[in-house]
Amino acid sequence: ARPLSPRPPPAGPAMYRLAPALLARLGRRRPWAPVPRREVVAASGEEELFVFPEYEPEPSGAVAATAAALPRRERAPGRERLLVAAAATGRPDPSVPPSGVSCSGCGAELQCRDGAAPGFVPAEKYRSLSGGPAGAAALRGAVCQRCWLLAHHGRVLRLQLPPEQHRRVVSAALRRPPRHGRGPLLLYLLDVLELPDPVLPQLPGLLGPDVPVAGLLVVGNKVDLLPADSPGHLGRLRQRVAAACAGAGLRGAPLVDVRLVSAKTGFGLEGLVSRLQRSWRCAGDVYLLGATNSGKSTLFNALLRSDYCKSRAPNIVDRATISHWPGTTLNLLKFPIINPTCDRIFRRQERLREEATKTEDQLSSEEKKYLNHLKKQGYFVGEVGRTFQQPKSSPVVDFDPDMLSYSIGEDPRHSPKKHEEREEFTYNEVKDARWCFDTPGIVKENCVLNLLTEKEVKLVLPTQAIVPRTFILKPGMVLFLAALGRVDYLEGEKPAWFSVVASNLLPVHISILSKADAIYEKHAGQELLKVPMGGEERMKEFPPLVPQHITLKGIGTTEAVADIKLSSAGWVAVTAHTEEKLLLRAYTPKGTTLVVREPPLLPYISTIRGARIAGTAAYRTKKPPSLVENLKTTERR
Q1: HSE (CB half, 13 Å, CA atoms) of 88?
Q2: Rounded alpha-carbon distances, angstroms, from residue 46 to 215, 516, 621
Q3: φ and ψ of 237, to 5 deg
Q4: Residue 44 is inside which H or E element, if any?
Q5: Are 149 and 88 within 8 A, CB to CB?
Q6: CA dist 59 to 34, 43, 264, 530, 590, Å?
Q7: Which label site among 253, 311, 595, 602 has the fewest CB atoms less than 10 Å from its CB?
Q8: Do you find a cis peptide bond into 475, omega within 30 degrees of 0?
Q9: Which residue ranges make up each domain of the chain?
């Protein structure tokens, strides 16, 4: 009798339906196979690698589903890449003039003249969409090839754009004549992981002295990715954001408020909507500003599904394209803002009070499923509801009995598809409307993301709750964060704690000083250090690591003294004994910025750890529970 083998889990997402042979060709083990959490060798002279294999990214759903549907003989290695490459083919036609219609995903003008320019649509598709009686107007609601590949395959097409293109678009938009007799309200979005924000000091230069501004609302995004290291940590984060504004010279009358949100999980968004509605009478249009990858388009999409937009807007305005790749939005996107009358504000407050009395047990099965999904994504979760919704019209079914009757010698006849007219705003709806604009992100200079490929960016940028990894190092030991950063502990009398706050997909490698250079030369570009990837050829074009010496003095064994921020790859919080002097040497790729952040963003991060792993420098990881904002806490006895 054959021994029983463990049964795989039931078919669910597309990746679970792939055959084991195809998964092997894709370089991935079966998701239900046991995976070692780490590869460790004893610590005295020895190397340790700490990764999170369970967080390995899944293949794109569309590509995986297509590959699973292929006959077995066609499932050749690299076939999934060919499928995506085939989707990117399309011939340009230089004789066709631009459409004058913007892509609903990125805002670029749709055209089929140049495949390397923004807004490109293959000529065949362009002609099929615009060939009707409506002409180019029929392109409204269509997306360019770049947005289509991002949305369906997670692939990025490189565009030929001048370095200052995004900045010029934003500056021109802000210098428009004020509408409604009031200046615009600027909603500046910054990534709290990137503090101090590199673009915030450039904001006065974008505005210029002649731009009347009704106010500046600074919003710290992505708080869901960071664990609570102590009670009141959100208040401390808010103070850090306010301090960054003051350091950038933004204080006084223009700065009206500082908020913390998660555009992805919805945390803090209901409060943000209420704050924006209170600015209705004193402001005109609203502009979402910020650096690339700060989450502006995600926030734009979240506000589009909230009480901040007109009730019909979600059915008319398409959602912005979002991706890991910096600079996805290329031009302005907009939706009309609803007028917050007294009656509407009252009805909204009634809804919020009613929702605040609910517990998780009172949610429907679908709501619980979505809530659990968000809890896996971040530490802080909220719900964005809608008070004002356009009633859905029941679909009208056309029934033609003659189409169902046919003789024995005939084939069944199919009625041609009727063209569905796109819903549009009426003139009265938007003639005096105020608009919320999503703008292109300002490119961050001296950022490590500018040096990385598409696949590498997906590994470096965290998309799920960050699990801190803490290590205790003695003088003479070295910590690698992939091949993007390195921290050497040169001098000190006692061991110190180094807590890594970075994407769970980036490996942390511990070694000793005498072997560190050889490890980097041998394993940079390889699987051990993971990013960059591509072997020796990739490392020939990648800039070398350059050092910077850092001197710190400890303030206690539970409180970090500083963060060593390795550009946008993450940071290492350093905790040492009181009055203990440490001499460190940190490395980042040449041309990128290394920042010593004092005080640290999460000073008690080293306390979020488990027991020490015997024979290693590492502690077991611990993930704090998630907090749901808009639900009543269930009391447990």
Answers
A1: 18
A2: 56, 11, 21
A3: -60, -40
A4: none
A5: yes
A6: 19, 35, 21, 17, 32
A7: 253
A8: no
A9: 92-159, 163-385+427-445, 456-623
CB within 8 A of 242, min separation 6: which ones?
218, 258
Rounded (5°) CA angle 124-127-132? 145
**What sign for the dihedral angle of Cα 161, 463, 52, 571?**
positive
The structure tokens listed for 91 are 């011939």
Predicted confidence (pLDDT) per residue in 246-293, tens digit: 888 776 557 889 999 999 999 999 999 999 998 887 778 899 999 988
- DSSP H or E stretch at residue 455: helix 454-460
CB 51 within 8 A of CB 481: no
Buried b (16+ CB within 10 A) or exposed e, 235-256: ebbbebbbebbeebebeeebbb
Cβ atoms 480, 511 nearer than 8 A: yes
Query: Do 544 and 590 form a contact (C-beta atoms < 8 A)?
Result: yes
At 49, the pLDDT band (50, 70, 90 cuts) reads low
352 Cβ contact list (under 8 Å, min separation 6):
270, 385, 630
Nearest one of 612, 608, 611 to 622, comparing CA atoms? 608
Contact of 543 with 465, CB cutoff 8 Å? no
Other beta carbons within 10 Å of 621: 17
- Length, in residues, of the chain: 637
583 and 564 in contact (C-beta within 8 Å)? no
d(CA 420, CA 179): 34
Give residues with Cβ within 8 angstroms of 228, minimum separation 6: 234, 379, 624, 627
CATH numeric code, 163-385+427-445: 3.40.50.300
pTM: 0.80
